[in-house]
């Protein structure tokens, strides 16, 4: 039932854009998705389960975007710049991503616990959503590790890989600072290029 699950998550996301999570009703989410309320409960178990699944989906979409940004053409600096720009833009446009990256959950948003919760769901995607959710520090580490894996060349020296990891983490932290305090003219790209002035070979 992946299509129904996605429709329900889309409906929940749309509802959240219009009203605080506390005012989002399961019956309304089901109606917008065109399924019964029982189908919604079968898929997510509860409103908390729906919230966890929504947060997990947005986290996965953000990380998929990171990988697309890292796969763009150009030297390491340009690819890291693209990653920082994606991070800042996505956090600006998506309140759930912003909350996940900063740890600042407003009263309008669901705020599921980051630790795993007991799951008796028969739905594999829900069992994953009921697992641990990433913290801001986890996101920094995940983006850094993905960047190192995608940007380090074959046979890279350990010292080169360590330096690349430091650069990747610095770029991610610059991007997060831009989420908290949007930069002026030149934006996140100028900040990253200043921090990483020398192009590196891929």
Q: What percent strand?
A: under 5%
Largest beta-sheet characterization:
none
Rounded to an integer, what's the Rg over CA atoms? 19 Å
Number of strands: 0
Provide the structure class.
mainly alpha
Helix content: 55-70%
User: N-to-C SSE series?
Assistant: HHHHHHHHHH
Mean pLDDT: 91
Count every helix, treating DSSP H or I runs of 4 or more residues as helices: 10
* Alpha-carbon distance between the two ends: 41 Å
The shape, in one word, is elongated
Low-confidence stretches: none
Lay out the secondary structure.
Layout lengths: L1 H17 L7 H8 L3 H8 L2 H24 L5 H18 L1 H8 L21 H6 L6 H16 L6 H23 L6 H9 L7
Helix pairs in contact: 1-2, 2-3, 3-4, 4-5, 4-8, 5-6, 5-9, 5-10, 8-9, 9-10
